[in-house]
Amino acid sequence: MTMVADAPLLQVGTLTRTFGGFTALDNISVDIKKGERFGLIGPNGSGKTTLINCISGALRPQAGSVVFCGEDVTQLPPHLRARRGIARSFQIPRPFRSMTVLENLMVGLDFAGVGSGQREEEAAMSILTRMGLAAKADAPSDTLSQVELRKMELARAMAVRPKLLISDEAMAGLSSSEVDEVLDLLISLGKEDITIIMIEHIMQAVMRFSERVMCLDAGKIIALGAPDEVMANKRVQEAYLGT
Amino acid sequence: MKKPRHSIAFWASVAVFLVAVLAMTQLVRNEYPFFAGYVILQFIALAVAWSILGGYAGYVNFGTNAFFGVGVYTAVALVKATGAPLVAQIAAAAVVGMMLGFGVGLLTLRMRGIFFSIATIALAIIIETVVMNWRFVGGAAGIQIQRPPVMAPFDSYVKMLFFVQAVLAVTAIAIARYIQNSKIGRGLQALRDDELAAECTGVPTLKLKLVACMISGALISAAGAPAAMYLQYADPSSAFNLSYSVSALAMALIGGTAHWIGPVLGAILLGSTQQLLAVTISSEVNVLVLGIMLVLFVVGAPRGIIGLLRPRYRLRAGGKP
Amino acid sequence: MFSMDLLLGAVLLGVLLGCFYAAVSVGLSVSFGLLDVPHVAHPAFLVLASYGVYQLNDSYDIDPLLAGLAITPLFFLFGLIAYRIYYETFERRGSDAAVRGIAFFFGIAFIIEVLIILQFGVDQRSVTATYIGKSWRFGEFRIPIRQLVAFAVALTLTALLAVYLSKTFMGRAIRAVAQDEEALRLMGANPVRIKQFAFGIATAVLGIAGALLIIVAPVEPTLDRAYIGRTFCVVVMAGLGSISGTLIAAIILGVAESIVLTMFGASWAPAISFAMLLAVLAIRPQGLLGR
Predict the structure, then answer these.
(1) Domains in chain C with CATH codes
(2) Average pLDDT of A36-63?
(3) Listed residue (A174, A185, A38) closest to A93, CA to CA
(4) What's this model's pTM, rounded to 2 decimal places?
């Protein structure tokens, strides 16, 4: 499995996913470059979360393929994809409630990261420090505030040492200063050569963050390109405002 | 993985315990404490084994009686066919229990927890039906078992069984403790908290669940194997008695499943109470009390006895309290 | 060797049996299918109802169907209380609650079983009524009248519940709360009250279903274990929450069991439902008419 220097990190090919009679994803194809900051937008129900579920492995598509670093991972279970470097956060945070913040990260480091024993705890602490959660390391995860939970979601995703990080509406419902906090974090992660797909509804965040933006509507791609192009696209505006 | 600092203390206690048990068999004349003690040690083994899947992974096995009965009848079949010694019976029972755990797990652990639980009930019904129709081991009528002559240093078979069950209980505890403190334990805890998040964080959830199910099954069947010799007979309705399922589950949940000591406490407390009630009132009432205590604890004291004793006790994942 | 006649007879009885299974499972379709309660004590409640019917029939000579009707309000109340306890204790929280919820119902089922044994003993009990003991000639076949009675009542009960859930305001509120609790809350309704009411109805139905249980065959305290497979099989095959699916799924199960019974004998009958349940979960988990 050789990888050409500028081959895409992630290749989604003719991906189709249905639920009963409902088509959530309709023949979606997109390539994501290594190190890219990729924004994914679209109205509710357009298929964004279904797409990342197929990429991360929580769902299998009915048709199509997901190729990551040159390897076809379409049928691989999520934990193997995590080990290969695909990490995701969840729209509604899913902490391991019986564990502390530090322990939440240790799970990722144990099973998908590298290192062992003492070095793991140090690695976890450094991620937490980065995220601004170092003070809460020993706090039970069910005592965190919303924004802290979001950050922990991202921290836990970082603990698997991802090549691709998918952030699913990490900023939903946060105050504008909190949005900035999380956005700055994601941008700094992007600077470390981690490829990031960001799903968001907060347009300013998407504009600031993304190098390219893709808009989904009813399971189809209706726009793909530079942020301002996509925002100016009539179909995108219609999809959000509804006609 | 760093060894927990309690390791030396643990193994020292194990050694002391086994020596004490051995000493008891040499010094105590009256047979009754050994009969009662056997039952309590058996419950410790069952509750701890149950907790490996039910407590750590969160998959509730209603079919402990199936694994237990399989252990009994594996021993019976082996003895009838080959006259094999007790150790071989226990080993065989463990293997069969493990395979059963694997089979049931493979079929149902991909699904929601409740379907696993229902499948374990199915397992119990189906296996009991099979055994009832199996003439070789006596079918529905049951079978008498002849005890072989007892070996030194024991002067009575029950005393030897008491020691054997003590070893089994300690084995179950040691394995549960190992799992709890290891990466496996952390993975199980994660998948119990949120299976999807655990998967996406790299935890091989299906594999871990299968392993827990196999180990739990093996230990339960192993604990059941000596029962045939203990009672000197076996019949399906007592070997597959539902009270084993309720007891293991209740003792583990009442004791508290966060730490291996919980099921041990639950088994000792409830096992002793049961012995008392069975002798003084009736065996139905004692089982009823168990059921009521289960419901009360599950509703009122979710962390079990551990939770009551140390309310702010949180088991740090990896076993360092 | 079996003849066409035997097979046809088995199928016929299977359809009758299936409708009976539908009545017995339809409550679970609401409590587990719609409300997502891990109600493994459903069959135990069913058996409890049948013993209640037995007691009334035995002591006061009341017709079992009337007895079933009489205990329905009691069971409704029982359901209200049970759900309230369940909700307050388990519905709220995360990981641990799932285990404890299942254990709770298992404990309740076990307690019911033991109480029945203490009160009635382990022997089988049956009821007496004018329609029990006679058979009806139907061409080549003889069908016990009690099966026909059970069939008719079961069909009526299932149909009534289906109509209730789709046509009445409360019924539709129950369906709505199963789909989108948040939306209902925003509309000003109290989802917990609705769910509690639904659970009450699901339990009340068991009053009559229990009467059917003891009409169709004698009951004994451990009967709930055989029915846990049957009821969950029907509910899952139907697709969680589908009442009409419940009837179809139940008939399929009834026919399958009846054929196996004819060919292999009674002891394997309980295994059928579990086997079908596992098959459905493996192949088509959303059931036949799932939501």
Answers:
(1) 4-283 (1.10.3470)
(2) 91
(3) A174
(4) 0.89
